[in-house]
Specification:
Elements (H helix, E strand, L loop, with lengths): L1 E9 L4 H14 L3 E6 L3 E3 L10 E10 L3 H14 L14 E7 L4 E3 L2 E3 L8 H10 L4 E2 L2 E2 H7 L6 E3 L6
Helix pairs in contact: 3-4
């Protein structure tokens, strides 16, 4: 089993329900065990600001799936929950990203691990630090990386939790 961290986000439709359904599908998959979820955070859109705010979280899991198999599962869940890929960084019902997969470093056209913009995004680092406050990433300690983020990254803890 390998420990992996996933980023989850939604800014279309019933965001909470979509994220709940995605977590349920992850938990029900035979190759995935022991999902642990951070709090929900409401965040300003990244890359394309002319859209609704996102709900984001990070989930820690144990998996027997390879990175590419896990990616396939995530894409199937996205599709099942209405994800349509049209505009880069555009609105979406669901976005599932592999942030980290054990100690693996992967650089393929469809999969980069660690996620290439992991350390630039408060909506990833804040919930990741909630799950693992002493984590050390290739770029440094997670708490130090959080301190480097600029104030322009709007993020607020959401009142509801998925648990």
């Amino acid at each position: 089993m390998t420990r992996a961290y996933l980023g989850l986000g939604s800014n279309l439709g019933n965001r909470e329900d979509t994220l709940r359904q995605a977590l349920q599908q992850l938990s029900n998959h035979p190759g995935i065990q022991s999902c642990k979820t951070a709090s929900l955070y409401e965040t300003a859109p990244w890359g394309n600001p002319e859209q609704d705010w996102f709900l984001n979280t990070v989930v820690e899991l144990e998996t027997s799936l390879s990175p590419l198999e896990l990616l396939q599962v995530l894409q199937e869940i996205e599709q099942a929950l209405g994800r349509i890929r049209t505009v880069k960084w555009g609105p979406r019902t669901l976005d599932l990203d592999i942030l980290l997969y054990g100690e693996e470093k992967i650089d393929l056209p469809d999969l980069q691990i660690p996620h290439p913009r992991l350390t630039e995004r408060a909506f990833v680092l804040v919930p990741l630090a909630e799950l693992c406050p002493d984590m050390i990433l290739p770029e440094g300690r997670i708490q130090e990386l959080l301190a480097k983020l600029g104030p322009e990254q709007e993020l607020r803890k959401y009142e509801e939790n998925l648990s």
